[in-house]
Amino acid sequence: MVPNGGKYMINENLATTEHLNNGVEMPKLGLGVWKTSNANAKESVSAAIQQGYRLIDTAKQYGNETGVGEGIREGLEKTGLNRKDLFVTTKVFNGDQGYQSTLDSIDGILERLQLTYIDLLLVHWPVDGKYIDTWKAMEKLYHAGKVRAIGISNFDVERMQDLLDHADVTPVINQMEFNPLQQQKDVLAFCQHAGIQLEAWSPLGGGDALNNPTIQEIADAHGKSTAQVIIRWDLQRGIITIPKSAHIERIEQNADVFDFELTDAEVEAINNLDEAKPSLWYEDFAWHNEDGHGFKDNVDTWDDSPVNFDK
Ligand SMILES: NC(=O)C1=CN([C@@H]2O[C@H](COP(=O)(O)OP(=O)(O)OC[C@H]3O[C@@H](n4cnc5c(N)ncnc54)[C@H](OP(=O)(O)O)[C@@H]3O)[C@@H](O)[C@H]2O)C=CC1
Ligand SMILES: O=C(O)C(=O)[C@@H](O)[C@H](O)C(=O)CO
């Protein structure tokens, strides 16, 4: 940790990266912002960058790309970092999928984020009948330099194989629900075989994995929180991870995971917690295939705890 001249210490370990299959380096640990309101996104993203975070994960669906963009600008200003030091992920949501509409969606993304390129663009959910066309458009955006890397999210093995059968560019990432209770063994094995990096969404199980007694015991042994143990477990498993918090002290805590190591037995104990238990709504996969229907446009009502700046 080094001082940054402001109120935060910079955690330089947050700059460590995984090497993606197209040669791009992606930070191993970043900040997720689903359910962070547009207003709070600015503050949390700016604070995260000031703490050393390089990777920010947003999506059109989250309704906060504008706030994320403002947070990025403020974070860069306050740290003196350059745009190229950051890694920004966003996603093409269901209603924008298809060839032309995916191509058209990039202008809105860049405008909302106020960026000239995206580091990683993901197919947010595989809309059956459209995801190949969506991918073809994303390949075009990649070759045009609008995005540095393209990937997928929520693709099971069957859909990944189908995509690979039609793709010219192999996805760099599959971003999946992955946490101690949901370890996606078949997806992970396929990704490892195909050279696709797995990235964990809801790494803390949306909070549900934080009260697990096995993880608590391991946390106590290391003097760490259960969130830190889970994030450390992701890193030791080679999984890129993007825990979300709207609390500054938790954003900082979640990154303070580079000064301890889980033993092989502890990693194994967490591996053994797998219940292959997806979030309830994940089981309702068809919901996500309704071409954007069900898109929650009432993001202002999302439960979003206030950002705490009283450090
Ligand atoms: N591709 C996809 O389809 C999806 C992608 N995602 C991405 O993954 C990110 C992370 O997943 P998400 O579902 O948000 O859930 P997480 O698993 O990251 O858990 C977030 C919850 O845990 C709480 N929390 C975070 N840190 C701590 C801590 N140190 N101690 C106690 N509680 C803590 C947060 O509360 P609080 O904010 O109040 O601190 C929040 O309630 C998303 O933000 C999004 O970027 C998520 C879902 C689907
Ligand atoms: O957070 C995401 O990236 C999601 O895909 C979720 O928001 C999901 O689509 C949802 O809205 C579940 O209710």
TrEMBL record:
Substrate binds at H124. It holds the Pfam family Aldo_ket_red. One of its GO terms (molecular function) is oxidoreductase activity, acting on the CH-OH group of donors, NAD or NADP as acceptor. The active site is at Y62 (proton donor). It comes from the Bacteria. The record marks K91 as: Lowers pKa of active site Tyr. Gene3D superfamilies: NADP-dependent oxidoreductase domain (3.20.20.100). Keywords: NADP, Oxidoreductase. Residues 29-274 form the NADP-dependent oxidoreductase domain. Belongs to the aldo/keto reductase family. This is Oxidoreductase. The lineage of its organism: Bacteria, Bacillati, Bacillota, Bacilli, Lactobacillales.
